[in-house]
Structures are given as C-alpha cells and as structure tokens.
Fold each of these.
Amino acid sequence: MTKIIKKENKTQYAILGILSLDTSKPMSGYDIRKTMANSTQYFWQESNGQLYPTLSKLVLNKEIKITQPNKDSNKNLANNKNKITYAITNTGKKKLTQWLLKEADYYTHRSELLLKVFFGQHVDPAVSIKHIQSRLKSCQDQLIIFESIASETAKLVAKKKQPLYFLLTVNAGIKLIQAEINWCEESLSLIKANKK
Amino acid sequence: MTKIIKKENKTQYAILGILSLDTSKPMSGYDIRKTMANSTQYFWQESNGQLYPTLSKLVLNKEIKITQPNKDSNKNLANNKNKITYAITNTGKKKLTQWLLKEADYYTHRSELLLKVFFGQHVDPAVSIKHIQSRLKSCQDQLIIFESIASETAKLVAKKKQPLYFLLTVNAGIKLIQAEINWCEESLSLIKANKK
DNA sequence: GAAGACATGTAATTTGTTACATGATTTT
DNA sequence: AAAATCATGTAACAAATTACATGTCTTC
C-alpha cells in the first residue's frame, strides 16, 4: 500500500495571483499568459498545456468564475467570440492568501552551462570559453531590458501609481544577471590565465 | 500525424561526465550520487528514479560497462555484495565530448519566493518581510559552506592538483548567493521604508 | 544487536513542454 | 487577401520526484 503525499500544484496560485492583481478586470487565458510574459516571465511561466486545464479545474473548485469581459476597457480588443474571461471568487482569494502566508518552497534549478563547465577538462579550453562568452552576451542583452523596465517601474512606484512588489522582482532579476555577468568575465580570465 | 522532436535527456551526460572524471575508478550508482552531492549538487542533481534506469540504458547503448570495483582504493569500503560498478567506454567518451561541444540549453527556473513577493500587495508587508528574512538566513548559511569549499579548492588548483573547472562552478554559486543576499537586504529596507 | 550508512531499484504521481489543430479578428 | 495576432485547447512526450521495498555492511 503506497501512501503518496501530493505536492500542491503551484500553477493554480500563479493564476489566482494574476487574476487578483486587478479584480475589476476579468481576464482570459490568453490575457493571463500575456500578463505573465510581461511580469513574472523570468521567474515563473506557464505553458498552454498547464494553463488551460488548470483554469478548468479552478472553475470546478469555484475559485474562479466565468464572467463577461469588461467592455469599458480595451474597447477595440476583447471582441473575439471565442474569448472566455475569468474573475477570482472570494473562495479563490482566501486560497491565495493562505498560500501567501506559507513558507515558499525552494526550487533547485539546473544549469547545463555549469554542468558543461564542470566537465571542461575533457575538451579544449576554447570550448568552455565559447560557452561562457555566449552566455555573457545573452546576459548583457537581458540586463539592458531589465534595467529599462526597472527605471520605468521605479518612477511609477515613486508616484505611488504601482505597488513596490513588481519592482522588487525586477531588482532580483537585475542583481542575478549582474552576478552572472560578473562570473562570466571572471571565469573567462581565469581560464585564459590557466592556459598559459 | 504528430511529429514530436525529442529533447535529449541530460541525465545521461551528467552520468558520463562523472564517470569520466577519473576513469581509473569505476563507480556505483550510489558513488555517482555521492559525487554529485559533493560537487554538482547546487546546479545539477539526480534522484534514484532517474539515475538507475539511465544507468541501465547506458549499459544497453554500450556507453558504460559493468566492471569489477577497483580494490586498491577504498580497501575497507566497496565490499557490499550488491554493489555494481560502472566505467565509461570509448563510445561513451565520444558521446560526452560531442555533447560538450554543443551550445548549452538554458533552463528557466521557477522561484516561488519571487512569486509570493510579486503578489505581496495582497498580504501585510510583514508576511513578505518574513519570507525574505527566511531566505536571507538560508543564503547566509549556504554562503559559509560555499566559501570554505572555494578556499580549499583554490589551494588545490594553485598547486595544480585539481583542474580549474570545479572552482569555477563553486565561484558561480558564491556570486549568485551573494547577489541573492544583497537583494534580500535591499528589499527588506525598501519594504520597511515603503510601509511608513 | 541496534543504528546508521551503503546500495539498488520501482510504482505512482507530478509537472511541464512541444507540437499540433482549430478558428476569429485585426492590420497591412 | 495575406500576415499577424488573438484565442482555446489537447495528445504525446519528457522530465523528475516521492515514497516506498529490499537487503548488506560497518560501527557503536
């Protein structure tokens, strides 16, 4: 007899959270994905294969409900007949809050780059250098994007037009990217010095 | 007709890589897990459920082979009758090298902490503060461990007793943890300032 | 002889992506 | 009228963990 403890699916909380950002705006699955792409993308994403089944499940649990899209906003959008919009219910809000109070699970993450660097002794140093240079370039590109988002957001936060929390997550992205850039640069010189 | 492009399983390369670190030492599944726990743990881990089936698959593909454990080393260990030890073959070495030459895939990673912080407006600021303080503590503990590993390793690298590459991955861990600590501290003061 | 480390393995489940099918609406 | 975007959804696959079962060997 096997006793399997089910780990809770976190996708549902991500959806509940996005829907609760502005409760006056019902959102479709597509809207939720777009919102995530513009905000939580670098630390949380959902694919269609996860999103749509979870939306159905949340409706069954009465944590969200199907509503008419708000016509006042986005006049010329949201006219697609296929569109289904959802709003969070009080049950959903309670569930979201309870989750927010619990300690966050830590997600270990894999880095294929570091795995390849770790086994670097099996190939020419030029290979590791190439991998790190490639990552350095991606990080530098990403940093420019993050920094422009951060400066826009900081202005809105200063004017009290946006809560602080989005800015905090952007800051996290910036600091981690900067650390990675710093590591790439240091590692490149260490490998080059080691070759001689 | 569905055409599914199979993404390659990376577990096999992690195993091939570990077995190639010292080809004179055949290792068991247990040894491989131990080695990973002491080296790649923070950017790459494997569970038994992945490891053992992959070992069988690698044997079938003749990328590794079952060998007698090396009795010279670890005299008083490795006597367990159940123990099966593996060594990498030339086929396996070729496969490892080919993978090392390819560009590394980037793994997006999830952070439940950042997701909770992002939705911080729905709870009292004290909740977000508690989450961040808890993470700060974990990071500080982890940093101490990483730093002692790095200083040990740096000595061995300087004496040319160990390749540079392990040190590079430890450095990556240190820089990322430091960035996270830095973010926690900054975020705590931003939230506290924002409350007033 | 108990505890703890060593050692292998599997079943069930969870989690997530990829690639598609399908069609509406908007923009060029 | 073509292209791009908006929009929902599923089948197949891939990846990974969790919780066991089973047993050996070493140390106290």
Amino acid sequence: MSDDPSAALTTTDAVAQLSFRVHALLEAHAADHGISLIQMRLLGILRDRRPTVNELARLLGLDKSSVSGLVDRAERRGLVARSPSPHDGRSVLVSLTTGGRRLARTVSDAFDTDVEALLAPLSQAEGDALTAVLQRVLVADAAAHGVSLLTTVD
Amino acid sequence: MSDDPSAALTTTDAVAQLSFRVHALLEAHAADHGISLIQMRLLGILRDRRPTVNELARLLGLDKSSVSGLVDRAERRGLVARSPSPHDGRSVLVSLTTGGRRLARTVSDAFDTDVEALLAPLSQAEGDALTAVLQRVLVADAAAHGVSLLTTVD
DNA sequence: TATTGTTATACTCTATAACTATA
DNA sequence: TATAGTTATAGAGTATAACAATA
C-alpha cells in the first residue's frame, strides 16, 4: 500500500487509508474523555442492550475472562453496573449507568461530527452514492461472514 | 449509530462500519501470523525506511520508550534489527530482517486479497467512482491535518 | 455433568520518570 | 546543557487454565 494521498490510489488503498483515519478519529475522541476504544465499544453495545458477560464476550469477540476485567474497570469508573440475572443464578447482566450513557453519547456525537467534516468535500449526490455503494458492500459482507457488524461501535 | 446493515444507513454509519470491518481484517491477518496490529504497522513502516527510534516514535505516534519495547519484542522474534547510526553516536537505526520483510509481505498480501473480496460486489465503474471520491476526501483531510496517513499500515 | 462467571498467571502495549551516553 | 535511547514502574488489555456456584 502506498501512503501518498496525492498519488493515484487503488480502490483497496483508498478504502484502507480511509478506514484507519476513521478508526483513529474514534480512538482520539474516546481518549479525550479518558477511555480506550474497547471501553467505548463496550458502552456503545450497552446503549440498547443489557447483555450477560457471556453475550458481551461474543459481541466483542473476546474471552469471557477478558470481558470480566473490562467490566471491572468500567464499573470502577462508574460507567456500567452488574446485576444478577432473574432467569439464571449463574448469569450477570451488565448495563450502563447514567454517567456511562452520557459519556457514550458525548463521544459518539463528537465522532459523528468529525466524520461529517471528513466527508464535507462531497456533494449531496456524491454522499448519497457513497452511502448506497458502501451499504451494498456491508450487506454482502454481513451475509457472508455473519454478525460481525455488531461488534463495532454500537 | 445503527448496527443493522439491512436498514437504511447514514453516510457516517456506513463509513464507520466499513472502517471497523477493514481494521478487523488486518488485525486478523496479523494475528494469523502471530503478530499484533502495532507490530504489523512497525514492519509496514520499515518496508521502505530505516528510521531511528525517535523517528519511529513520531511515525507511530508513540513515546520513545514504547517504541523501545516494541522494537525489543520484534527483535526477539527476529523481525527487525538495530544498528548504530553512522552519523550520531546516540542514535539507533531500525531495519527489517529478511524474515520480517517476508512476514510483512505475506500479511499485506492477504489483507489486500480480503479487501478486494470485500469490494467484489461493485462493478468496475462503481469501484472507480468510489476510489475517486475517497481519494478527494483523503487528500483534503491530509491537507487539513498533516501527515497522519503515514502512520497507518505503511 | 455442563455452563456462567471470576480469579491466577503471563504476556503485550503504553506512558511517565529517571537514568546513561553522546552531542 | 540538550538529545537519543534504555530501564523501572505502573496500569490497561488479552488469553489460558483452574476454580466456585448454579443448572
């Protein structure tokens, strides 16, 4: 892969470079608020779910012991809470606290603003065409590889 | 951000989801060969450079002490080598070994193949249009924010 | 017996601060 | 004095293996 954006790029290069730029944007916004990318992913998942530790491990693609530590640290910061499952005495439900929800929204909003700024050079029609093309790629990929999209930001 | 790829996505959502998918692809290929993403970035940078530890720190956006440890571990695996700078007795030059170069190429090729497969649903014309649009975005962003593109894979 | 979650252990990655050697 | 690099230390993040509690 080349790294000079003014040179002619292959489609693969362009997609790869954009991806790393966008990834770095989210990481930077999370860091601005004192959390890591994986902590932000955890908060994002919890915005509309109340999963068990096991389910979180599957959604994040991590071992359950890793999730246990991740939730420990988020709990210590007051961002998430553990509660016993009413259905299974072995399970633990993880949910956002008010502060965790506020933080997730703040970082997510800042990220959205930056991505919009990144795409500002495009006209309305170009943006729409980009969305349509990327959506087809994502749908085809999700069909081929399963639910991996769940494991992004939220 | 929504996580259902079959629902209508905003442009920001589509870009973010694609970014995480592409990032995960590179991480998985590096892991297949027993190295982390940051180790792969190190190898990628060294493919056409022979920087000092200080220059590596700037390129990777890390503290020099972090780079020192990173190079230690890569050196222990036989992927990179340190040599004294002929110009400055304090500096150390870092370069790829033959094995490191081979590994960098293997991972990079596998990644390219996967990104091509990801974009396979697009026609030639759609791929060309996507490249043109993304290149404009990347050039504008690089102009606004400097040389950050250097710090991705290579 | 099988599953859920935690704990013990080990390694990678990162930063800050203190240090050595060189400029 | 200033700079390049390393080392000491501390903490986050990750996996494997062993464990306790529950199903």
